[in-house]
């Protein structure tokens, strides 16, 4: 699925383990863990979401390129939030 490709190939997370139809444990670098859980039901229209991510400054450009390679319309930014 596109979501999984975006999280793994785009954002660089590795899947530690998953429970079929349930929780997936994703990890990137040290202490960056995500536990996406499937919704009880699918909405009629996908909600707009914002994902914030921390990374090493010199890796921002390659991270954005990887996200855009998976899906051109999912990646906006980067934005300086300082």
Structure description:
The protein has 82 residues and is an alpha+beta fold. A hairpin with a 3-residue loop joins strand 2 and strand 3 (32-34). It has one domain. The protein has helices at residues 2-10, 60-70; strands spanning 14-18, 24-28, 32-34. Helix 1 (2-10) packs antiparallel against helix 2. The radius of gyration is 14 Å and the shape is globular.
Question: What is the secondary structure topology, with strand pairs?
Answer:
Blueprint: H1 2-10, E1 14-18, E2 24-28, E3 32-34, H2 60-70
Helix pairs in contact: 1-2
Number of domains: 1
Content-based structural category: alpha+beta
Measured on Cα atoms, how large is the radius of gyration?
Answer: 14 Å
- Tell me the quaternary state: single chain
Task: Characterize this entry briefly.
The chain is an alpha+beta fold.
Which short descriptors sum up this protein?
82 residues, alpha+beta, three-stranded antiparallel β-sheet, 2 helices, globular
